[in-house]
Amino acid sequence: MKPLLSFEDDLTVPPPGLVSVPNTVEISITGRCNLSCRYCFYAHEMAALKDLPKARWLSFFEEMGSLGVQRVIISGGEAFTRQDIFELIDCLIENKMRYSMLTNGTLITEETIEAFGVGKRRMRLDSIQFSIDGSCAEVHDASRPPSSFDRAMRGLRLMKERGFPLAVRVTVNRYNLHDLENIARLLLEDVGLASFGTNEADRFGSAKCYGQDVMLTPEERLLAMRTLSGLAKRYLGRIAAFAGPLAMAKMVEDIDRSLSRGETGRPGRGTLCSCGGALQKLAVLHDGTIVPCNLLPDFKMGEIGKTPLLQAWQHGQAINALRKRRSIPLSSLPECRGCNYTGFCAGGCPAVVYAKMGRLDAIDPGVCYRQFKEIDHVAL
Length: 380
Fold this sequence. Notes:
With about 375 residues, this protein is an alpha/beta fold. It contains 13 helices and nine strands. The two termini are about 40 Å apart.
C-alpha cells in the first residue's frame, strides 16, 4: 500500500460528527460467490483471503453488541453461499442489532423465505438489496455468468410478493448504458418497486482487468447522466444515486443554478469532505481484517478478535487519515488551483480517488465540475 497522508495515529480533538462508537459495521461475511461478474469490486485481490469460521464471527458480534453498534450490513462475496448465514443473523439479533443484506439474488428460494420467517429475522431486517443490471438476460448477463438474470429476477419477484423490504442497485456500465430506460420500466412498472438506486462500474476488483470493456468513457458517462436525469424526472424522484452518473447530473444542475444566482460556493464544501462514512461506520473483510471501508481493503486497522473494535475506531491511522482528509482545502491541490468552482465541490469518494490516483490528497476527476464542462462543450 502506498503511504497514507502523514497524519497522527490519534485525534486529539475529534472532528465534528464523529460518533463515539460506529453506528454501522459493514461485514463481508464471505469471499465466496456463485457468480463471477466483470466489475465486482470484491474480486481478485480478495481471492487469497480465507473466510473466518463461525465462532470468530459470533464472538465479534458479541463485542459489537456490548459496544452498542446499532446496525450491520451483510455482504460478500455472496452471503447466501454460507450455510450458516442464518445462525450468524440470529447472533446479530441476540445482540440487539438490526441488519440489511446485499445479494445477487440468484440463490433465493422458497426455503430462503421460510428461513427468514423464524424468530425475529424479518422483524430486524431493514432491507435486502439486489443487483439488477439489465431489463433482460441479454443485457444483464453480458457482465455476469449465463442465466444470472432469470435467477435474480425470480428471487426479486419472490421476495416482492412476500412483502420483504427491498432495494435494487443498478450499476451503470457499457453493457447496459442503452438499456437504462427499459431497466427503469421493468423495476418501477413491471416489478412495482417504490424506487431503485444507481451507481457506476469503477476501477475496483474485476474492473481493473475488464475496465475497457466495462467502464464508461467520458462521452458515455455524459449520455448516462442525461438519460438518468430524464428518467428521474419522469419517475418523480424514484431513481436515486449517491454516486455515479445520476449523482453527477444532480450536482451539475445544482452548481449551474447556484452560478446563475451569482453564488460562489455552498456551505460545507470546498474541502475533500465528500464522504462522511469514516465518522459513522467501518468495515470488516471476510478474513477478519478491519478497514475503514470495504472499498479500501489495503487500509488495514487490525483484526477482529485481536484488535478491540473501539481501539480501531478511535485510534486507527487509516480511518483517522480519512477523517483528517475532510479538512484539506481543494484550493491547496495542484489540480484545483485557480479553479472558480472549488467552493461547490467535495472531491469525490476517497476509495475511488485512491484507486485512480494512488493517494488520498487528490480529487476524483469523474466528479470535477470544470472537467465536466470541458467534456460537455466538446460533445456539443
